[in-house]
Write a structure and sequence with these properties.
Shape: globular
Distance between the termini: 40 Å
Strand content: 15-25%
Low-confidence stretches: none
CATH class: Alpha Beta
CATH topology: Rossmann fold
Strand order of the largest sheet: 5-8-7-6-9
Number of helices: 6
Structural class: alpha/beta
CATH architecture: 3-Layer(aba) Sandwich
CATH superfamily: Nucleoside phosphorylase domain
Length: 274
């Protein structure tokens, strides 16, 4: 059986045969947030389905392409669509592309997602920069044998989220009158949404927003000493309880797309400033 490093090397070798592009930044685009690609001067596109050991995204609005190109003068590789644990993938499969991007040369990871608010001050359509997280996923990508070539057995996530980029992003949002908050993201398995009691519990334990992704990728990034900037588009409200309304994935995507220009602006400006 091939080891994790063997599988990673297979994927990297396949990509290297198709492009000699060396990206500086990796970007993961979340639900309804794939339009940042239109701001990338694209050099190469590779479908996930052709890359060895990559999975195929099964979620609506996740296209399933690896995009190589530039934003301003910065070389980037963007995941147009991500994988989730609730799709039936293992945690290793969920974070496999992050590890590949690191081996391709990235030194910074930018992550976006759609999330529900757990904070009465954070409204639908706002942005929330993630300063910390609470992991309620049933597993994580570091369980089992540790590949020491990737990182240590017991990495410390104290500085998982890049404080300099957080402050830059908040200043950008303020200057451009974009409603943007800083908070704690709770990652849950999904795909079912939360009950009112669960929303209340997640609020009580310190969450400001809840979603079904991001933290596995952040754990993989921390393992590889890869700084992270992560930002959520708030697509629905889970707190206070009296504000909860039924929500569909179509409504989540619609709200995400409406807020996407603000998120795209912040990501573009941050990446260009590096």
């Amino acid at each position: 059986m091939e080891s994790l490093l063997d599988r990673l090397n297979d994927a990297v070798h396949y990509i290297r045969l198709r492009t000699d592009f060396i990206p500086e930044c990796g970007i993961i685009l979340g639900t309804g947030l794939g339009n940042l690609v239109s701001h990338i001067k694209v050099q190469t596109e590779i479908n996930y389905s052709t890359i060895p050991h990559f999975q195929v995204s099964t979620v609506e609005s996740h296209s399933g392409k690896l995009i190589f190109g530039t934003i301003g003068s910065k070389k980037v590789v963007a995941m147009q669509g991500r994988f989730h644990y609730y799709e039936g993938y293992t945690m290793d499969e969920v974070v496999f592309p992050v590890r590949v991007m690191k081996m391709l040369g990235i030194n910074q990871l930018f992550i976006s997602n759609a999330a529900g608010s757990l904070n009465s001050k954070i409204n639908k359509g706002d942005l929330m920069i993630i300063r910390d997280h609470i992991n309620l996923q049933p597993s994580n990508p570091l369980i089992g044998y540790n590949e020491y070539e990737l990182g240590p057995k017991f990495p410390d996530p104290l500085y998982a989220y890049d404080k300099t980029l957080i402050e830059k992003a908040l200043a950008l949002a303020k200057k451009n009158k974009i409603k943007c908050h800083k908070g704690v993201y709770v990652s849950v398995p999904g795909p079912i949404l939360e009950t009112p009691a669960e929303y209340n519990y997640l609020h009580i334990i310190g969450g400001d927003a809840v979603g079904m992704s991001t933290v596995p990728e952040v754990i993989a990034a921390v393992h590889m000493s890869l700084p992270v900037f992560a930002i959520s588009v708030i697509t629905d409200r889970g707190y206070p309880i009296e504000d909860i309304q039924p929500v569909t994935v179509e409504e989540v995507i619609a709200v995400a797309k409406e807020a996407e220009p603000n998120l795209t602006f912040i990501l573009k400006e941050l990446i260009s400033s590096l």
